[in-house]
Design goal:
Length: about 375
């Protein structure tokens, strides 16, 4: 394809910008790619590393929370439950937070305590550090509102987005989608890395553009989230802090009853986290609809523990439009939006971002090495 003078000038300019942006931001983009490919499967990795605590054999019926509470009290006396994490997958155990901050894993079909974790172990610390490395380079000064690590990594996301667009522009005149193997010469070696860079890039670019764009939206959420609400004309729904007075002689309703009330308030949603409120507290339950595959869920129901009155409801289906955009953007970026298939796609896309950077640096290094060799002759 013939290029005009202006076109050739633009191509050369973009090539240099593409190269030096990669060299300057490359380390951070590599970190984003490697950590992102791991983060897509954080819950799965944690479960796999604690499989004896996590996995159970599904049975036709699970015990009620009242029955589970009694069973746990017999096995772990003097350590009451303060929160129930109810698995929505039949082969995953329940996780109960105890008053001493231990997390007990319980077989919901037999009531047997499978084991407990008291504080983060090596796997949890490692996954947390990987997550924070991805978000902010493990760098956030304590006692300060400044978040320099997040600024750096968000800027790296912008650089990655530019590299994708400029790379597409540079690829377009050639449209090369094959890899040339063999030859054994420096030129053929450079051709191989050039072809690999092009082929990997063009086939992964739709997913990489989606990944980087949604990541930038998250990285600059202090600006993008207000924009979501402004564009949609919606207002954030604030989760109220509610306290209740205990009527004389009144008893708290059971967690099972609170779940029944929450299900009626949000038909179709399944509560998966229930707290045990203190005397002046309330039941605050998180729930998810079938289409909501994010680990944290996006629906909340607050219930008066004495009267059973519903004090607050926000379902993901009826949340403010700005909140729904924010949730969808995050679910796309993490791969949660369609479950395991989309997690695999986003994990591979993150890995491809790292591969793109590596192949690009190898090409630059080989060309630089050849240039030096030619000058020394």
């Amino acid at each position: 394809m013939e290029l005009t003078g202006n076109g050739e000038h633009m191509r050369k300019l973009l090539f240099n910008l593409h190269l030096y942006t990669a060299l300057v931001a490359g380390t951070f983009i590599l970190i984003l790619g490697v950590t992102g490919s791991i983060m897509a499967f954080e819950p799965e990795i944690d479960r796999l590393c604690h499989w004896k605590l996590t996995y159970v054999t599904p049975q036709p019926h699970a015990l009620s929370l009242e029955e589970i509470t009694a069973a746990v009290a017999n096995q772990l006396p003097g350590n009451p439950i303060v929160d129930y994490a109810i698995s929505t997958s039949p082969d995953i155990s329940y996780q109960l937070t105890l008053k001493n901050h231990e997390i007990a894993y319980v077989n919901q079909y037999s009531g047997a305590v499978l084991g407990a974790r008291n504080g983060p172990d090596f796997v949890e610390v490692l996954l947390t550090d990987i997550h924070q490395l991805h978000l902010r380079m493990l760098w956030k000064p304590k006692g300060s509102n400044a978040d320099p690590g997040k600024v750096i990594m968000s800027g790296a996301g912008v650089a990655a987005f530019f590299l994708l667009l400029s790379g597409l522009y540079l690829w377009w005149p050639l449209k090369r989608i094959k890899i040339q193997l063999g030859g054994g010469t420096p030129t053929s070696a450079r051709r191989f890395w050039f072809d690999l860079h092009n082929v990997v890039g063009i086939f992964s670019i739709p997913f990489l553009l989606l990944l980087t764009f949604t990541g930038v939206m998250i990285g600059f959420d202090d600006k993008t989230v207000p924009l979501f609400y402004q564009v949609t004309g919606s207002e954030p729904a604030r989760l109220p802090r509610v306290k209740v007075a205990r009527p004389p002689g009144a008893k708290s309703i059971a967690p099972d009853q609170a779940i029944t009330i929450a299900k009626a308030a949000l038909p179709g949603a399944v509560p998966f986290d229930v707290n045990v409120p203190p005397p002046t507290g309330v039941y605050q339950m998180r729930a998810r609809f079938p289409e909501d595959l994010t680990p944290g869920g996006r629906s909340v129901v607050i219930v008066d523990q004495y009267s059973g009155k519903i004090l607050y409801v926000q379902g993901s289906r009826t949340a403010p439009a700005g909140r729904r955009i924010e949730t969808t953007n995050r679910a796309i970026h993490t791969g949660d939006i369609f479950g395991i298939p989309s997690k695999i796609v986003m994990s591979l896309a993150s890995a491809m971002a790292s591969l793109q950077l590596i192949t690009g640096v190898v090409m630059w290094w080989k060309k630089r090495k050849q240039f030096r060799a030619e000058r020394s002759v």
